[in-house]
Amino acid sequence: MKAMIARKKPVEVECYQYTNITNLILSEIMWVMKSFGEGKIRYDQEDDITYIHTLEGDMKVSAGDIIIKGVQGELYPCKPDVFAQTYEVIRETQDDYPFNGPGAGGEPVGPTGDKGQ
Fold it and tell me: What b/e string do you get for 40-65 counting C-beta neighbours within 10 Å, with b at 16 or more?
């Protein structure tokens, strides 16, 4: 294969900003709840750590990380700064509770980061 420069195809992915295990368990976001129920997202109570089972193995999820559901249904965590450089939020879904965005103040955050949109 020759060396190349490539650009990712524009695809939409579902994502959820993780705050803590309680908000994740209480969330009304169906794919998040299904993933938790299937063990793709798990909480180690002894260590107080949440993990996502990814294609590369289990990865730790920290408060503020974005959980992304990829084009083939795979899950992976993404740090907020990398997410901001790589993704553009195009809309919030109907089941957006408890998405708290970068402000983490409990209010929804719009695509440009402004509150209440």
Answer: bbbbeeeeeebbbbeeeeeeebeeeb
In-domain check, residue 94:
no
Are 13 and 68 in contact by the 8 Å Cβ rule? The answer is yes
Q: How confident is the model over 25-81, as pLDDT tens digits?
A: 888 788 998 999 999 999 999 999 999 999 999 999 999 999 999 999 999 999 999
Query: Could you read off the pLDDT of 83-96 as tens digits, one per residue?
Result: 999 999 988 876 54
Q: Write the single-letter amino acid at 66.
A: I
Assigned domain for 60 exists? yes
Say whether 100 sits in a helix, a strand or coil.
coil
Residues contacting 89, CB < 8 A, separation 6+: 110, 111
Record the tokens describing residue 77, joined without a space.
Answer: 């965590």
Q: How far, in Å, CA of 74 to CA of 91, rounded?
A: 21
Count of structural domains within the chain: 1
The answer to whether position 113 is within a domain reads no
Q: Which domain holds residue 31?
A: 14-86
